[in-house]
Amino acid sequence: MAREIDETWIDDAIDRYKRVETLRAEFDRAVAAHQVSVHSPDQSIEVVVTAAGDIVDVRVRDDLSRREAAEFSRELKAVVTSATEAARWAREKLHAEVFGSFRSLEGF
User: Fold this and answer.
1) Other Cβ atoms within 10 Å of 16 Cβ, number
2) In terms of CATH, what superfamily is 7-99?
3) pTM of the predicted model, to two decimals?
4) Fewer beta carbons within 10 Å, N or C terminal of the chain?
């Protein structure tokens, strides 16, 4: 028994694929461009991170000569951990914004 080819379904699938590719490219651009700034618990270190997780800047707002290495290490680790979480949060938010209105495949 020969199967009928549904040309409309195929055209819709191609259009949907193109739309997904366009949205994905938009998402990738947004993730690379969006930056989030986080601070260490004592506010002495600021890290700027993209939604992709790339650290683009680190600013130290305190005189390092007066700080103990262990204390500075704790603050640095805390702010880098916060930056990782901030990047994840930003990615999720951007994903929802870009793909939120995209209808699911259910019902096809």
Assistant:
1) 14
2) Nucleoid-associated protein YbaB-like domain (3.30.1310.10)
3) 0.76
4) N
